Amino acid sequence: VARLCVCDLLVAQCDANCCCDPDCSPEEFSLFTTCSVPVVVGDSHLCRQKAAVYSLDVEANPPERIFQLVDQVNPSIFCIHATNYKQALYLNSPEMPTAENFDRLLSEFGGAAFSAEPEGWSVDTEAPDPPDANETHSYQYGAPVQTEDAFLRLPSPVVSSWCSDANPAGFLVNQATKCIRSVSVEKCDSIQGLSMLFYINSSILAVNVTVQSIVVQSLDGMRTLLEGDDVLRLPLALDELCLNIVLGVSYHITYTDTGAITEAAAAFVLGTITKEALSVQQSFQISFTQANTKPVPLSGNPGYVVGLPVRAGFRPQGYPFLVEFLTNKHSQLSILQSTASQDCLAAQGARAPVLFGYNMISGCKLRITAGMKCQPLAQTLLDVLKGQSFPEYVASFGNSQAQDVLDWVPITHLHISEQRFSNPLQSLCQIPVALGIEVKWTKYGSLVNPQARIVNVTATLSTSTLKQLPPGREKIIPVTSSVVFTDISSPAEPGYKAWPTINIKLPFDFFYPFV
Known about the structure:
By secondary structure, the protein is mainly β. The protein is built from four helices and 22 strands. The strands form five sheets. Strands 14-13-18-19-21-20-22-17 form an eight-stranded mixed beta sheet, covered by helices on one side. Strands 6, 7, 8, 9, 10, 11 and 12 form a seven-stranded mixed beta sheet that branches. A hairpin with a 2-residue loop joins strand 9 (236-238) and strand 10. Residues 119-138 are annotated as: Disordered.
């Protein structure tokens, strides 16, 4: 409890009237008027526990902060004597049902009651609390990633475009920054921000930052990947050049479902500058991936962002109930991609992702001869328009998770057939010639910051009647595919000033680590 401090909100700065803030000096404590958090305890359900008590001695000159560690007794008879059930010390993410584990989960949790107790209780009334109960370093969303000396640095521009190394990397906050750093060839080996060592010399608590890859960029912009990733290349001043300066760093952090960081890797881009260069532009990036999971690209958080792909997927087969969606290979809605030859038979397999907010149209030409069969031709054109596996559902939000069934919108399919009067004894051949996709979306949530939400998707397939051609004759027909986005948001009433509503969708990791 001596290390717990709920009022410590600023990084490497003293919070006013926060008597437990380790960043405050005695001079700053003397300016406090009160302690905003006088008592800090752990679990209030324990029968006996340590409590950190903070107060101010205003009679001293100057005033001083007083810290005491006392034993606190819970007067309730219903209290916890010992926390020996380690699984209760943190929250486990629930196991999502799949086709492989459904029978096991049904037998375990499908009854009227089930037991959550471990296989064996080792109750020792004299045993203290587990030593690792408070030793686990778990992060909450947005918390600065701590290192041995301070925090993980992600340089970024603050007021101007010049790099500031005081920007901490936030947990689960993917960032990408670019800034300018002043350089000098004569002193390049002494500038910390240009050296690899500056970005990997601090361990993230118990995890060392490893070098994932090193790319060397020449003066003409050509990049070469080095084979040895564990080679530390420091800046070197040679004649009128400075070699091995850091042009870019990309961090990749792996974490567990309890918020603990298990791995940290950094990929570097090193370059060379000449004596004429007075500054150099650096780029920095950080991304997070949960262990034992496959990262799924998002198209917004939560609402869609214009220009990002529309996410799509399929409904699982053989499920007793709907629990998750199996995304396609690229997790995107796609249409026919136009090619230079404009040949439909050669364009099969070429797909372009549907980007949110972008109306798109593409097409090709089909050359029909007298010897072509109707059914194979129709199936080929259908594969050209829809692709090999056209999705069944579209994510309503850019961050919709696979297990959130209500966040997925089914695609409605319509069929328009061209009717022509002909000889009833002559068989007609219907071939698909156009696929039109209409995406209806609306502004959702707060009026201050509305989020784009897809509410309906309609795919209309148009077919045309193909007459039998005489021998030796050819015919060219156009085949088109299009996407239209329609905003169906209700317009605000004139003269009506609406308050921001609370009917919003939060980011999926807003309550992390809680579900």
